[in-house]
Amino acid sequence: MDSLKELKLAVDSSVGGVSDDEDRLILALDFGTTFSGVSYAFTNDPEQIYTIDSWPGATDRIVPKTPTEIQYTPGSPDKFKWGYELEGTLEDKVIGLKLLLDPDQKRPYWIPTDPHAEIAKLPKPVVEVAADYIKAIFQQALSEVEKGYLPGFLDGFKKQYVLTVPAVWSDTAKAMTERAARRAGISPINMITEPEAAALFTLRTMKDKGLKDGDAIVICDAGGGTVDLVSYEIVSLAPFEVKGLTVPSGGALGSLMLNRSFEELIRQTVGEDDYVVLKKTEGYRSALREFDVAHKLSFRGPCDSDRYVSFPMANLKDNKAKGLMKNCMTLTGQHADINPCRQAMFRIFDPIIQEIMKLVIEQVRDVRIKQLESKNQNGSDVKVRFSAHTAPIFPTLPQSNIHCPVLQAIFLVGGFGASTYLKECIQTANPNIMVVQPKEA
Ligand SMILES: Nc1ncnc2c1ncn2[C@@H]1O[C@H](COP(=O)(O)OP(=O)(O)OP(=O)(O)O)[C@@H](O)[C@H]1O
Ligand SMILES: [Mg+2]
């Protein structure tokens, strides 16, 4: 999510008391479950959008986002490290902070998670932890912005802030997020939903790449914590104008749930007693990290190669049937094997992907309903148009001047949206619609 032009519109429409002729600096925080980033623009040059790409702990690199992680010094709840400062740290740190702002959000029932227990382990209330992180990231952003100008230049600009929230965020969670931002000194703030931000960014970057006036698209932003969906119609490419076709939808089905599912698989494989001991070891943390940065990202679906996760010196009981031998667990992507241990990667991925697919199918259905409504508005003899590569599901008549959105593509964005296996599953379930993983997303 890097587009501030649209965010500016969102800001203009909902923040009162700021006249348009005042020069403003708008900073937008993409507060992600696993990674966060800040973009900014000046209202006197709104086409020029900048992204913060220098972060404490990673000054040797140019990266658009920093990890949403924070770790407090034991006994000093005001001292903390955050983001890349914690890179390589396996000790306890707060991860998935954003999800703790909505602890009652429905989670996948097959993954045992207890957000309230995680909140209880924090050294201070979750809103204050979120405020510390938000303050730190905006301080970094502002100091980076200031570097580009003469001292005092920014004093002439009012600052406005934009924050994204998941489509499924409860009102309480929105209020908590806003409270955390205010506590961090961020005001005035405007909140927009993540699928809307993702859609506007994707549509802008894709508009020169084959999309046409009248096309409808489904956006599925699969991130670390949540999956957020919405569908849009391109009313016009020039000037750029889009129209929301569906109500944004989503769920707590992000990539972090794959990690939790992997932990659950370890628990079931080694047994409850050994798991209690194993969980406290460095080897366990490093196995989780290996899953997160390697196995999970490279999983391609059927016929994938075997993977091994080892827990050195853990003294686990061998269990050949479950693929556990000599403290080493086999994770395989070979689907058709009768041995359950040989389906480990599918047991991790499939239940989550099934839930995401249900959400995609609901969006596609809702777009189809809009198409039918357009048809009815345009007269009963007029039929829905289809794009060249979509097989007609409804019968068509010769071209006419009617206006109906054409469901052109499903765009998969966000980190999890880059998954080869997720794309394959969604494509198989929707053979008549193109599934696209835009490079820029
Ligand atoms: N190929 C992949 N398969 C599965 N997960 C992936 C893949 N590539 C990246 N990820 C995961 O995507 C997540 C990062 O994505 P992103 O930055 O979109 O999430 P986020 O903005 O932090 O989360 P959210 O938007 O849900 O709050 C990480 O959890 C990362 O492990
Ligand atoms: Mg995100």
UniProtKB/TrEMBL annotation:
GO terms for molecular function: ATP binding; ATP-dependent protein folding chaperone. Coiled coil: none annotated. CDD domains: ASKHA_NBD_HSP70. Pfam families: HSP70. It comes from the Eukaryota. Keywords: ATP-binding, Nucleotide-binding. This is Uncharacterized protein. It comes from Xylaria bambusicola.
